[in-house]
């Protein structure tokens, strides 16, 4: 009787590059996934920290990246630049989290700006809240790059140089995106300046 051959998933040698690990992970090799995790955890965490500055959030981003690797393992063999792909997943998820925080931060910023040294009346609080909502609606209509630049600068206090590094753009390009975004926000706020008061009537 001839014994049937079994498909055996072989693990790459120690120190194997990420592309070799991806191929093995795609075949369902859990030890290769563990190796990838150990080799890249700190690097991904550092990149995530660059974007969000908070370790707990950076750790969540890092865990998300490895979850994506495992959940999409079948597609890993089609990725040509595996390491770059890891950095892209890290950056995209970090920016996604920053976008989700943008509205709350925008509201807080505008309330602080409107407060000055005096305590706000309920009407002032409501006006600032509605202004923040209007601005967020305007920002959501901008191009993706303009949205990213505006939110990273206004909601997270990042400089043009830091934004350029995050988005892999030149500082001059970032400045141009920000200028165009601010121009659009100002023009549309002026166009709808009476709407807030009308809504309160």
TrEMBL record:
Ranges for domain RNA polymerase sigma-70 region come to: 36-101
UniProt entry tagged with the keyword Transcription regulation: yes
For whether the record's keyword set contains Transmembrane, the answer is: no
**What SUPFAM superfamilies would the database entry show?**
Sigma2 domain of RNA polymerase sigma factors (SSF88946), Sigma3 and sigma4 domains of RNA polymerase sigma factors (SSF88659)
Q: Which domain of life is it from?
A: Bacteria
Q: Which keywords accompany this UniProt record?
A: DNA-binding, Sigma factor, Transcription, Transcription regulation
Residue ranges of domain RNA polymerase sigma factor 70 region 4 type in the record: 133-184
Family as reported in the entry's similarity comment: Belongs to the sigma-70 factor family. ECF subfamily.
The protein, known as: RNA polymerase sigma factor
Question: From what organism does this protein derive?
Answer: Terrimonas rubra
């Amino acid at each position: 009787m001839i014994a049937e051959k079994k498909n055996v998933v072989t693990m790459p040698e120690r120190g194997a590059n990420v592309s070799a690990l991806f191929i093995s992970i795609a075949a369902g090799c859990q030890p290769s996934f563990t190796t990838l995790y150990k080799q890249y955890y700190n690097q991904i965490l550092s990149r995530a920290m660059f974007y969000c500055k908070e370790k707990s959030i950076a750790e969540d981003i890092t865990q998300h990246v490895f979850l994506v690797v495992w959940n999409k393992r079948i597609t890993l063999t089609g990725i040509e630049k595996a390491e770059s792909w890891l950095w892209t997943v890290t950056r995209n998820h970090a920016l996604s989290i920053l976008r989700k925080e943008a509205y709350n931060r925008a509201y807080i910023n505008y309330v602080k700006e409107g407060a000055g040294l005096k305590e706000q009346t309920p009407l002032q609080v409501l006006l600032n809240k509605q202004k923040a909502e209007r601005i967020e609606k305007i920002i959501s209509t901008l191009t993706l790059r303009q949205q990213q630049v505006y939110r990273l600068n206004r909601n997270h206090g990042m400089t043009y140089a830091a934004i350029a590094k995050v988005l892999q753009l030149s500082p001059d390009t970032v400045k141009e995106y920000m200028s165009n975004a601010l121009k659009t926000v100002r023009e549309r706020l002026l166009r709808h300046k009476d709407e807030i008061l009308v809504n309160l009537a």
